[in-house]
Every structure is written in structure tokens, then in C-alpha cells.
Design goal:
Layout: H1 21-47, H2 75-101, H3 108-123, H4 132-144, H5 155-158, H6 181-194, H7 198-223, H8 228-239, H9 242-250, H10 255-267, H11 280-296, H12 301-311, H13 315-336, H14 338-343, H15 356-360, H16 369-387, H17 396-411, H18 421-427, H19 435-449, H20 461-492
Helix pairs in contact: 1-2, 1-9, 2-8, 2-19, 3-7, 3-9, 4-6, 4-7, 6-7, 7-8, 7-10, 10-11, 10-18, 11-12, 11-13, 12-13, 12-17, 16-17, 16-20, 17-18, 19-20
């Protein structure tokens, strides 16, 4: 039934007061304004990317990417606009989730059309907000020239006397690739298609990322199509979320490729219980797809550990899943040799600029950072596995992988907002809990800390001061607060709101694991 306000009221969940269209109207309008305004700002800033962001690019004679290189936007204005977009987008997603809880059911067709427009627009524009896509392009170009990206660094390309040299970022020019062999192959393929145009290589990389982004959205849409509330929540968290559109699509980070492959691996397992082994052919496919994800970014091996937790009662299933993963992983690492293996541990004691370890870990313990963080990850993973609510019925591997991904993302010292794609691609299939808010807070803080991302010129005194606080002051506090809140939720069990306007869908308080009561 659709009310005169255009908000469709869904059936009330058991034990909750019926949702009111009036209660959903205000947050619904705030969601539309915040999300639409945020995306439009991101598109507008990306259109003039070359005027405010490093490195400079030479556009191809025809075809994408396109950029209004005649237009100009100063670095302070671009930075301020993007901060505004991030804040508005975060607020819009939060308002949208509140509206869903209160019964809002807008047209899904309108939501998906708007998301498709945003993805398309950001795909055909040059990478903005990060120089990583040009690092990927450099590694692909190195392979196209017959060298190993695990041995030869991008500085080699800066010595060439052609237009490509100026588009190689200086920040990571002396670092070899830290990505998996399949990630390197993807970059090589883009380089073969893009030739000597760094802009064209980056476009191919972004195009495949956008396809993977759409795959995750499609999987969530199909799996949740019978539950309008959870379906809408999934698209708010992923498909139309401005934070992810900026971090994954506009910036062109390859994490979305691994997220899509890993999610498909968990989904292809089909519906089953932890006591019933799924068909071995499905297990083999799951292992192979998760192997693809880990062969792009090694941290997605956590999805494999989640799969192993669910299959632990069947030796045949464990061996089959491992065989599927190894068939994918071994050839690439064997081809590139030990340099590729060393890339796996190249950042073991590193911490990102916004990590709370940088502020709260005493210097004498800094050499043991990886060991301390690993211990915390294991402890929190065990706690969360016992205490987090049950996940999607019939798909225990999604919950197991989410638990491990959350523990790693919240407590590993080297974290960037696009890394949380490994959480969000699974969270969209998980029942609504307060974990939603913690993940959104993490991604928002990390995105602000990494904005604007290698600007082309000094930001100015005011922006410089604000940027200091937005990187080394506020984000570590937010990330530490989110980590502490996660532990608090595990200990208290306060995963869901207690008021009548709780999460959508039938989610009784008894759907936690039996071990919670023990």
C-alpha cells in the first residue's frame, strides 16, 4: 500500500509497533538530499580533477576518460567540497537507514537508476581522491614492458621521455607491487588495452571495478528480493552509498574486485546448515572464487578461513575447498617467485596515518606492532564468533567470514577506508544491527582522512590545519571508539535497538548462536 506521501508501508515486524509513513517522511527526505547532494559534488569535483589533483594526466584523443581540463578548481575549494560531500553522504545513508526502520519503501527502480547513473558518471571520469589507480597502471605498464612489478618499481617509468612519465605518482614510485598475482594480471591486461596512455589504462581498471561493484549490488538485490526492507538497506549500505562510490568507483581501488569474487564464493556455496555438508562441486567453486579474491588481495584469505570454520566437520569438504583455492593461488605465486611472496608481509609492522596504534602504542612496543595487532584480532574474532547474532538463514559462511573480516578491519593497524569493502559486501546480507553504525563511522572517518588525496598544490593554511585534525586527531579517535564499541557489543549483546522502530524484518532476539547462552 502506498500513502499519499509516496512512502510505501511494509508489514510490521512481530512485537513492534506498525511503522508510520509520517515518521519516515523526514529522514527519507534528508536521505535523498544528503545522498544526491553528495554524489553530485563528487561528480562535479571529478570533472575538473586535473586542476586540483596530482599526478597530471594526458587524455586520449578520443573516448573515456573525460575531463574538463580547461576548467579550474583550487585545492582548498576541492577539499572543502569533498569534506562536505562525505559528511552529507554519511548523514544521508544514516537518515535512509532510519527511514527504512520506520517503514519507508521508496521506489527501488528509482534507487537503482540513480545508483547506475552515479557509477557510470564516476567511471568515465579520471580517478579522483587517490593516486592508487595510477600506481596500478604503472605496475601494469611495467609488466607490459616485460618486467616484474614485484622487482621493478614505478620510478623506472619516470625515466622515460614520453607523456606516460608525468602520470606516474611520486608517492609510491620506489615501492614494488604489494598486490596479488591476479591483481597484477588485471593491471597488465589494462596496460595492454590502454597502451602508452596512463589515463586510458586507469579507465579500463575503473571499468572492471565498476562491473564488480555492480555484481555485489546484483547479488544482494537477488538474495534479498523477498524482503523489501532488507533489500533497501543493502542498497543504502552499498549501491547508493556515496562513501563507497567515492572510495571504490571514483578512486578506482581494486579492493572491489576481491570483494565481488569473495562474496560470489560464499554465495555459490548455496543454502545449508553447519551440520549438513554442501555438495562438493559447490565447495570446489567456493574455494576457487575465494582463491581468486585472495589472489587479488591476500587479506581475503579470511573468507577462506570463514569457509573452513563452517566446513570443519567434513574433511572431504575442507580438502575440496582448499584444492579449489590452491589451484588459483599457486600458479601465480610460482610464476612471479619469492618477490611476490615477500610482498605479502611488506607492511607487517606498518600503520596507516589514521591508525589509533600510532597515537596510543608506546614506542618501545612499535617493533612488535604486527604481533600485538594479530593477537587482538584473534581474541576479538573468537569473542565475536561466539557473540554476534546469527546471520542470513542457511548461509553460515557469510556470518563466519564477516566475523573474521570485522575483527581484522577493526584491529589491524594498516587500514584504509576502501579496505572495509570486505565488511560491507557481507554486511548487506547480514541482519541490521548496531554494527551498521560502527562500520559507517569507520568508513566516513577514513574517507575524510584520505581526502582529497595527493593534491596538486598546497592546500592553504586553514585547510592545512583542518587536514591535520582530520588525519591524525579525529579519525584515530573514531576508529578506536568503533573498536571499543565492537567489543562492548560483544560483551553486552546490545546488537539491536530496543525501541519499537527497530531493524526491519523478523529478527527475534533469540536468533543468536546457542553458545551465547552458555
Amino acid at each position: 500500500m502506498r500513502s499519499v506521501t509516496g512512502v510505501r508501508s511494509g508489514p510490521p515486524a512481530a512485537g513492534r509497533a506498525p511503522p508510520s509513513a509520517d515518521r519516515a517522511r523526514v529522514p527519507g527526505r534528508l536521505a535523498v538530499a544528503g545522498i544526491a547532494g553528495s554524489i553530485l559534488i563528487m561528480i562535479a569535483v571529478s570533472v575538473v580533477r586535473d586542476s586540483w589533483m596530482y599526478p597530471p594526466i594526458v587524455l586520449p584523443a578520443w573516448g573515456p576518460p573525460w575531463d574538463l581540463q580547461a576548467a579550474h578548481l583550487s585545492v582548498p575549494v576541492a577539499t572543502g567540497a569533498l569534506w562536505l560531500a562525505i559528511i552529507a553522504g554519511t548523514g544521508g545513508v544514516i537518515a535512509g537507514l532510519v527511514a527504512v526502520e520506520r517503514g519507508a519503501r521508496p521506489s527501488m527502480r528509482a534507487v537503482l537508476i540513480a545508483a547506475a547513473f552515479a557509477v557510470l558518471a564516476l567511471t568515465v571520469l579520471p580517478p579522483a581522491g587517490s593516486t592508487d589507480a595510477f600506481d596500478y597502471a604503472a605496475y601494469g605498464r611495467i609488466m607490459a614492458l616485460g618486467h616484474s612489478p614485484y622487482v621493478t618499481t614505478p620510478s623506472y617509468l619516470r625515466l622515460a621521455h614520453n607523456s606516460y612519465a608525468s602520470s606516474v605518482p611520486a608517492v609510491w614510485q620506489h615501492f614494488a607491487s604489494v598486490y596479488g598475482p591476479l591483481g597484477s594480471f588485471e593491471q597488465f591486461l589494462a596496460a595492454k588495452l590502454g597502451g602508452v596512455s596512463a589515463a586510458r589504462i586507469a579507465f579500463w581498471l575503473k571499468l572492471w571495478n565498476s562491473i564488480a561493484f555492480g555484481v555485489v549490488a546484483l547479488v544482494a538485490d537477488r538474495l534479498l528480493r523477498s524482503d523489501p526492507a532488507r533489500r533497501l538497506r543493502a542498497h543504502l549500505l552499498w549501491t547508493i552509498n556515496p562513501l563507497l562510490l567515492w572510495d571504490l568507483v571514483a578512486s578506482g581501488h581494486l579492493d572491489v574486485l576481491a570483494a565481488a569474487a569473495g562474496l560470489l564464493g560464499l554465495v555459490v556455496l548455496g543454502q545449508h546448515s553447519e551440520t549438513v555438508r554442501p555438495p562438493l562441486l559447490r565447495v570446489l567453486g567456493a574455494g576457487a572464487l575465494i582463491g581468486v579474491a585472495a589472489d587479488i588481495k591476500i587479506n581475503y584469505v579470511l573468507f577462506g578461513l570463514g569457509l573452513a570454520l563452517v566446513l570443519r566437520r567434513s574433511l572431504a569438504a575442507l580438502v575440496t575447498a582448499a584444492a579449489g583455492a590452491l589451484v588459483v593461488l599457486v600458479p601465480g605465486y610460482a610464476w612471479f617467485g619469492m618477490p611476490a611472496v615477500r610482498a605479502l608481509v611488506s607492511r607487517r609492522n606498518g600503520a596507516s596515518a589514521d591508525s589509533f596504534y600510532s597515537d596510543f602504542l608506546v614506542p618501545s612496543l612499535r617493533p612488535q606492532l604486527a604481533l600485538i595487532a594479530a593477537a587482538l584480532v584473534v581474541v576479538v574474532a573468537v569473542l565475536a564468533y561466539r557473540r554476534m547474532p546469527a546471520g542470513m538463514p542457511g548461509r553460515p559462511a557469510i556470518r563466519a567470514a564477516l566475523v573474521l573480516g570485522v575483527a581484522w578491519s577493526f584491529f589491524w593497524p594498516y587500514q584504509l577506508p576502501w579496505y572495509d569493502a570486505m565488511i560491507l559486501c557481507l554486511l548487506v546480507l547480514y541482519p541490521a544491527t548496531r554494527l551498521d553504525w560502527l562500520v559507517l563511522a569507520r568508513v566516513a572517518a577514513g574517507t575524510i582522512a584520505n581526502t582529497p588525496g595527493n593534491p596538486a598544490a598546497p592546500r592553504g593554511p586553514l585547510i592545512g590545519v583542518l587536514h591535520h585534525y582530520s588525519v591524525v586527531v579525529l579519525p584515530p579517535l573514531v576508529l578506536m571508539g568503533a573498536a571499543a564499541a565492537l567489543v562492548g557489543l560483544c560483551l553486552t549483546g546490545w546488537w539491536r535497538p530496543r525501541d519499537p522502530g527497530g531493524p526491519p524484518g523478523p529478527q527475534p532476539e533469540t536468533d543468536v548462536l546457542p553458545s551465547v547462552a552458555s
